[in-house]
Amino acid sequence: MTWTDGPLLGFDTETTGVDTDHDRIVTAALVRRDRDGTHVRTWLVDPGVEIPEGASAIHGISTEHARAHGVEPRGALDEIAAAIAAAVREGIPVVAYNASFDLCLLEAELRRHDLPTVEDRLGGELRPVIDPLVLDRAEDRYRSGKRKLVDLCGVYQVVDTGSLHTADVDVVATLDVLERIVGRFPHLGDLDLVSLHDYQVTAHRAWAEAFNAWRTERGHTGPGAESAWPSRAATRATAVVAA
């Protein structure tokens, strides 16, 4: 029996934007997959700020809809963080596509609302985490083409994905893609969770360094890719706001 037999806890968010220090969670999903099946829990959050039209166009949630039907963020964030921490204490890995985005944004949101972060609740690093994007880059690094979730669904022949950019649908697709990746690269399933997590830390750092060197060679400016995975310290202060 290996970690591939489960349980696994998938996590995804849809947000107001892509700045992990300043943007807000609009929807979130936790999907537990185990021998009894797939169990989905979702949140619709009123982020307390305007949702830009560009973000709404991606996930379909308008400011008006979030205000009318969403819950206040503090309670939702506390529930999400508590569920993730409880799973990790049980030894259940957190599975997220481009995990550093969702996990960093969640931690920033928790700090913003003066709540303990997931790492605070665990008393240390959030691990193990499994990120199909990191694994795909490491195992099939010379494959051309984009590597968004929808692209990997095509590469690994994951069908019936529903409407991607809905948090719960994205999590289910992420878990399906992970299963197909391990099927294609079975040595990943032979690793224990500690070794698998550490493998991804090293693989992501190697990818980020190579990507940033490529950017420098071509004269690109800007911060480039973060070398830390799956989380990092906040680079900018996040002020506490009223609930």
Summarize the structure in words.
Pfam families: RNase_T. This is DNA polymerase III subunit epsilon. InterPro entries: Ribonucl_H, RNaseH-like_sf, RNaseH_sf. By secondary structure, the protein is an alpha/beta fold. The chain has one domain (3-218): 2-Layer Sandwich (Nucleotidyltransferase, domain 5). It has ten helices and five strands. It has a five-stranded mixed β-sheet, sandwiched between helices. A hairpin with a 2-residue loop joins strand 2 (25-34) and strand 3. Helix 6 crosses helix 10. The termini are far apart. Mean pLDDT is 91; it is low at 234-243.
At a glance:
The chain is of the alpha/beta class and 243 residues long. The chain has helices at residues 53-59, 63-69, 73-89, 99-112, 118-122, 132-139, 149-155, 167-184, 187-190, 193-217; strands at 8-15, 25-34, 37-44, 94-95, 129-130.
- Class by SSE composition: alpha/beta
What is the gyration radius calculated from CA atoms? 18 Å
Report the top-level CATH class.
Alpha Beta
Shape: globular
Q: Write down the CATH topology.
A: Nucleotidyltransferase, domain 5
**What is the helical fraction, as a range of percent?**
40-55%
Total number of beta strands: 5
Mean pLDDT across all amino acids: 91
The CATH superfamily bears the name: Ribonuclease H-like superfamily/Ribonuclease H
Order of helices and strands: EEEHHHEHHEHHHHH
Which architecture does the CATH hierarchy give at level 2?
2-Layer Sandwich
Distance between the termini: 45 Å
* Share in β-strands: 5-15%
**Which strand order spans the largest sheet, edge to edge or round the barrel?**
3-2-1-4-5
Keywords: Exonuclease, Hydrolase, Nuclease
GO molecular function: 3'-5' exonuclease activity; nucleic acid binding
Protein name: DNA polymerase III subunit epsilon
Pfam families: RNase_T
